[in-house]
Amino acid sequence: MYKKIMVPLDGSGLAECVLPHVEGFINQCQVSQIVFVRVLESITPAIAGEYAISMDDLQNRESARKAEAEAYLKQVIDRFQPATTDLQTEVLFGRPADRLAEYAENNDIDLILMATHGRSGVSRWVRGSVADRILRAASVPVLMVRAPGTATEKPA
């Protein structure tokens, strides 16, 4: 049913709580390809600091960030040793939810498997939720795994 799965990761241990589920899909579901994706928000001069930076410096920073993200994703896929599943990595730039939904649609992804912090109420509204935005924007099924240690706010 699910032949090509996308697994968004942000570099945090919390996001990696999906990895045991990835192992399950590899071992039990005959998945042909899993793409581990990391989205980096683009650096703008306003984010880069108080001082204006040159385009060369900006490009060097972006290149360094991309190399770091690629190395991280390589470490993640090295944890698996699938016999028949092709593991790939992809580093994208932009707004995470938008880029992930776009990638899924443009690359024939059958399922998005990702972690969620489990925020609700005010904390979700203030901080936003990439997982929620992906759920609403994606044109494919999304399986969300609540990270251990995250609890929902209970009604009074």
Task: Give a topology summary.
Layout: E1 4-8, H1 19-28, E2 33-40, H2 45-48, H3 55-77, E3 86-93, H4 96-106, E4 111-116, H5 121-127, H6 130-137, E5 142-146
Parallel strand pairs: 1-2, 1-4, 2-3, 4-5
Helix pairs in contact: 4-6
Summarize the structure in words.
It is a single chain. The protein has 156 residues and is of the alpha/beta class. Helices cover 40% and strands 21% of the residues. It has six helices and five strands, in the order βαβααβαβααβ. It has a five-stranded parallel beta sheet with strand order 3-2-1-4-5, with helices on both faces. α4 packs parallel to α6. The N and C termini lie far apart (41 Å). About 4% of the residues have low confidence.
> What is the helix tally?
6
Indicate how many domains the architecture comprises.
1
CATH topology: Rossmann fold
Poorly predicted tracts of residues: 121-127
Rounded Rg:
17 Å
Shape: globular
State the secondary-structure class.
alpha/beta
Distance between the termini: 41 Å
Tell me how many strands there are: 5
Largest sheet: 5 strands, parallel
Strand and helix order: EHEHHEHEHHE
Could you name the CATH class?
Answer: Alpha Beta
β-sheet strand percentage: 15-25%
The CATH superfamily is HUPs
Overall pLDDT: 83
Percent range of helical residues: 40-55%
The largest sheet has its strands arranged as: 3-2-1-4-5
